[in-house]
Amino acid sequence: MHMHDWNTYRKQLxxxxxxxxxxxxxxxxxxxxxxGASQRTGHIDAKTRELIxxxxxxxxxxxxCIAVHSAAARKNGATREEVAE
Length: 85
Prior knowledge:
By secondary structure, this protein is mostly helical. It contains five helices and no strands. The chain has helices at 6-23, 25-37, 46-60, 63-75, 80-84. The longest helix is centred in the first third of the chain and has 18 residues, at 6-23. The chain is flat, with a radius of gyration of 14 Å.
């Protein structure tokens, strides 16, 4: 079974989004605005929000979303065990 190098994959995604923002800056700006809106409510802490987003990404089988949200969960204090669960 082949395993992704998730860090490399996440960097490739970021480059792709950067390229897309040059072609369609309003679309990317809208996504960033929508994505950031939930962060300003203060109802759920960042770690929990990222763990929920990771669970959704896994259920949707979105490799890019899994890469981004697993890294964000770890950055916001989730342990390896919490991410695995």
